[in-house]
Structure formats: C-alpha cells, structure tokens
Please model this.
Amino acid sequence: MRSVVLRQATVSVVVLVLATVILGFGYPLVVTGISDVFFRNQANGSLVYSGGRLVGSSLLGQSFTDAKGNPLPRYFQPRPSAAGTGYDASSSGASNLGPSNPVLIAAVAAREKAYRAFNHMAANAPVPVDAMTASGSGLDPDISLQNALDQAPRVAEARHLNLAQVITLLHQHTTPAEWGFLSEPAVNVLQLNLALDGLR
Amino acid sequence: MNVTGWEQLLFVCAVTALLAPPLGRYLAATFSSYPPGGRPPVPPGGEPDERAPGDRVFLPVERLAYRVLRVDPRGSMTWPVYTIAVLVFGLLSTLLLYLILRLQGVLPVNPTHAPGMAPKLAFNTAISFITGTNWQAYEGETQASYLADMAGLVVAQFTAAAVGLAVALAVIRGIAGSSRRIGNFWVDLVRSVVRVFLPLSVLGALVMISQGAVQNFSGFRTASTLAGGTQLIPGGPVASMEAIKLLGTNGGSLYGVGGAHPFENPTGFTNLFDLLLVIVLPFAIVFMFGRLIGRRKQALVLVAVMAVLFLAHTTIAMQAELHGNSQLPASVQQIATATNPGGNMEGKEVRFGPSGSALMTVGTMGTTAGATDSALDSYTPVGGTAAFAAILLGEISPGGDGGGLYGILVLALLSVFIAGLMVGRTPEFLGKKIRAPQMKLVVAYVLTIPVVVLIFGSISLVIGPGTRSILNPGMHGLTEVTYAYASVAQTNGSAFAGLSANTTWYDITLALTMLIGRFGPIVLALAIAGSLAGARVHARTRATLDTAGLTFAGFLVGVIVIVGGLIYFPMLILGPIGERVTG
Model:
C-alpha cells in the first residue's frame, strides 16, 4: 500500500513538472506567438488611437462624463455600469441585483427620470431597457439602436448638427446581427462618438 | 421565444449533432488503440486498432512522456490503484497550486502586481481549480498574476479535464469490460491531454483571438478617454485560458466576469462558439462510450436524455429572459421591437441580447463549466431556476468531460434497479447483474452531493458569517447561498455573484464542499466500476430489460427528475419558486 502511494506520488511530481512547463508556459506562449503574427490588433485589445493618442478599445465601453460625473450632452451615452465607479476596466463587474431587489427597482426609476429629462422626452415616453440596466461586464461597448435613436436629437442639438446627419452616422456605426441571428444589432458608442468628434 | 432565439438554439443543436459523433469516433479510436508497446485494456467493442488517428504526430510525444514518467503503458491498474493515483495526483496538484498562489507576489510574470493570496483564499482557489470547479472568490483582474493564471490555473484546468475523462474511461472498462483491471491512469491522462485537450485548445484559442479575444502580456495600458478621463485597459493571456476553461468544462476566466467580458467574448459568434466548445466534447464522450462498448444504440439513448434536459433548461430560460423582469414598470421597453431586443437586460450585454445570453449561460450550466456571459443573480426567477435545475439534476445535460458520462451511467444503474424491482427480476446493465454491493455504492453516490449541499446551505442560513455575505434580500438571498453550495458541489462554479464569498466561512466550507463533491463521486464511480470489473456477462434474453430503447430513456428522465427534484424541492420552494409566486 505504502509503496503504491509513493510510486504514484513520484509519477505525479514528474507529471506536474512536465505539465507546468508544457501547458503552463509552452501552450500560452505558442498561442501568443501565433496570434502576434496573424491577429496582432485583436490580441492586443483592439486598441483605438486618435491623433496618435490611445483613447480606448473598440471592444470596451467608457464613460462620457465631465469631471463631476455628469453625462456630456454632446456624446452618446453608454449604458449604466457596475464596474467600479463606472466603466472601470480594472474591475469588471455586474450589479448582481436580483430582479425583485428594491434597490434595482429604485435605480431603474431614477434612471428613467434622468434619461427622459436628459433627452428631452415626454414624461410618459417609453424608454429602452438597455439604457435602464447595467450590463454583465460593466464594460458593454454597445447600446441598442433604439437607445441611440432616442439620444440622437440631444446630441445633434448640443453639437449644432443636423439631426439627419447624426442619424446617418449612427446607422453607419450600427453592427447588424452577425449572420442575421448570432448577435443583436448594436451601436458601438466609442466609435460613434469618435466619428462625431471627427466631423468638426 | 423569438425567431432569433430559435435560430440560435437550432444552430447550436445542428453544429453539435454534426461534430459530436465524428469526435466521439476519434476519441474511441484514440482510447481503444494500442498504447505504445502493448495491448490496451479495452472493453469488448471489437478488436482494438493497431493505430490511432494522428499517431505520426502524437505517438512520439506520448512515448517520450512515458519514458520520462517511467510508466509502463502496458501496465493496467486495478480499481484501488487507479483511485489512489487519482487522489495522490489531486493532492499534490493542489499543494503546488496553493504554493504558486501564495507566492505569486514574488514570482515573475506579474505586470499587474497581484500580491500573494491570503491562506484561506489560496486554499479555496487551489481546490477550486484542481476539482475543475473554478469557483472564483478572488478578483480576476487584480488578485491573480499572469504567472498564476498560466502556470497554475491553466495547468489545473488541463489536468482536471483530463482526470475527468480518464475516470470515465476507467468506469467504462469496469462496467463493460471483461478484465479486473481498468486501465492505466497515467496513460489515460497523457493521452487525453496530448491527443484531445491540447490540440483543440490551441485551435479554439486562435479562433477566439481572430474575433477579438486578447492574448498579450502587457498588463494595464492607460488610455485617455474622449471625455478627458483615463481608463485602464487590461490585458493578459486571456484566450489561451478561455479555450481550456471551456473545452475542459472548467469555467474559470482570467477576468472576474468571465464570458461577459468583451475581451474574452467579443461577439455573438464567439458567444455561441464558446457554448459549443463546452458542450460538444461531453456529447462526443458519450458517442465514444457507445463505440467502446460496441453498442452505439445505448449511447444514443443517453445522448437523447441529455439533449432533452439541455433543451428544457435552455428554452425555459431563454423564454423567461426574453419576457423580461415583471417588477419593472411598463414604460421600460422590455418587449422586443425592430430597434430594441428588449428582455431582462440587467446583467446582460447588448451584443448577446436576452436570448443569446440565456442560451449560453444556461446551456453551460448542464455541464460542469458554468461559464456565464451574463449575471445569473439578476436573472428572472424562472430563468434562474432553469440554471439551478441544470445543476441540481446532477450535471448530466451533457455534463462535464467524463463526469457527465459516469454521472448518467450511475443514474442508469439506479434506473435499472428500480425497473428491476417493478418487474421482479435481478437488474442487469450491459449484461452484468447489478446486486446489493453495487446498489449501496450507487445510493452513496446519489446522496453525497445533496447531503453536503443541504447541510452547509442550511447552516449558512442561520449563522451570521453565512447571512452577512448575502446581497439581495428575501427569498432571492436564500437562493444565493444554496446555489453557491450546489454549484461548487457539482464542480460547476457559477455563482449568484451577489454573495460576498471571500470570507473565512465561505472560503473554507465551499472548499470542503468542492473536495467532497468532486472526489466523493469519483471514488464511488471507480468503486462501482471495480465491483463490476471482470463480472460475468450474461446473454440477453427476452426478459432482459432493454436499456437501449425509448422506454428506458423515458424512465431514466423520470428517475433523474425525481432524484434531483425531490431532494431539493423544499429548497427551490423557499428560493426561486417562492420569489416567482410572490413577485
């Protein structure tokens, strides 16, 4: 019995050494090497530069607020975020609030009011659900088309642009459903806002 | 359910149906072929092949491995030796991982400057990854170094998956084979990694990177946002970990939110690709079983049962999440329109929408991966129950790599026993009589997990260290606690993540639950296989219960639902069902 255990323990130790070298270092390094050749942009986080400056990643949402945390009317606004203090990519996270949690119900009510006021909507106008809720990652780069359309008049006004021009731009930055059904149509907020800044 | 939802579900089913049978054939050929230098210990599914597919590449690697390990690949083990090998390997792997996690702060490859983990957190995390649970009580981005991710957690993800498959192979040989010996653990382990998990992981990782998943060693990059702030952009060897996390039905990501993170699961394509990486292999293992025992119809029956359960969980959850949260006012548009997918979007990403989120998240719940792309805690009561049920029914839809197969085989033994009692005949499975010694082990297997879950869950609900960690009030809070124990006991590892789990009470009790939930069933399954190994195979007569027919499939579903359902029903009533009814 003791010799059986010792024998298996010896093999285990050698297996662990081999596994650490081959699976722990070899495998990720090989994958990194191949991706560095073929998919360098993706492997590094689909980074977005503007005027030589790193402004973010096209895959990560970011805040468009002033120093006090108020949303800037000239930018399309992303969804509410539970990552840190909002779109903190070093601390991804969801609210984890249950559907019946009073905290969630109250937060949605407050967001509803703020959304209508910010976008100059009628007091009982329907609001898109993605603008009322925080995403699973807290870093959702997208908003729904309806959410973008609701925000377009405000953005156009703040930028003194023609509404039709903003809506055209918005449609240009809408990703349709992949293969027609794999994903939902989505508007990438960072890319849309970058394009708006580029208009000037 | 909406059209997009049906299309997504159909796509997943079609690809699985297309890939799982050939992959099962590959696995069968691999594991019934001669290992270098000798006859394999295979059950009577026809004569073993001289060669396995890919020998030209894999065989030299295997030979080298056996030479370095000083293992004679021809040496087949009895069940006690096989079990000792599994347990000793598990113990030593846990020790090594514990050391890495404790020392990561002073080890190299740590651009995010993660400090060494505290003892209780390292204890919990080490056991979590060795058992294939991948419960993450630590913060992915800041509390694990890249070195710990790669050389510690990823290695554990490979070995946990390979151990699961190895145990399943041993169980097949015991239940169906004619020898008292059930294979060589080290051969099964090496072959699983070299011929299955490693090549598939490289492929899977590259596909995901091509779609936007990240793979680098940059640590945090600082971006200056358009609005004038800063954002820390994370990096890391994400895709390489993601591939084995999914293929190995492990579930643990480099980032805290796992499959919801855009750097891990960037598109609708990767979302369903992730789900397929999880479920195709467990289904393929059942097809492999059919070929190894030479009864492919038997495998089809098990696949059908798994598929029915999978479809039930996913369609119910998708429907519930599409329907939205009934507690929100009507002015919040949860009904789908052309410009808004609607649904219960709290904790979900726009690109996946309600149906894609529920399909991926709840689809992986019936495996031991529990890889989520959305926040389960914020699911509707019905959607959350569907995920919970997939776990409670024993992780067999289609289950983890290997674990799904031996899990459903044990339930099949229970079913032939009950059926045997009904008709008054000695129960038989694959021609072997099932008698009292086997039934005692089967009952112990079925009861192990509920006993730990209900005991620890109940204690946590009455003591301060248990209840203080709850985020959501009322019945939902009860679900957070009981879900945690059920999830880790079944080595699933997903969470109603509102629970603050990194406390002494939860770190320790959840770790113990994982140990019992993983190794208890493994030892019992191997013991059952050992007790049947070498038993006489009886010829089929007209009175033999046909275990490869539709009647048995229906009966098996019934047993699964009754065993899983009745044990946990009070807990579900007080949790999600109560929440739904009172909400």
In short: The first helix of chain B runs from residue 3 to 32. Residues 42-46 of chain B have pLDDT under 50 and may be disordered. The radius of gyration of chain B is 23 Å. Chain B has 18 helices and five strands.
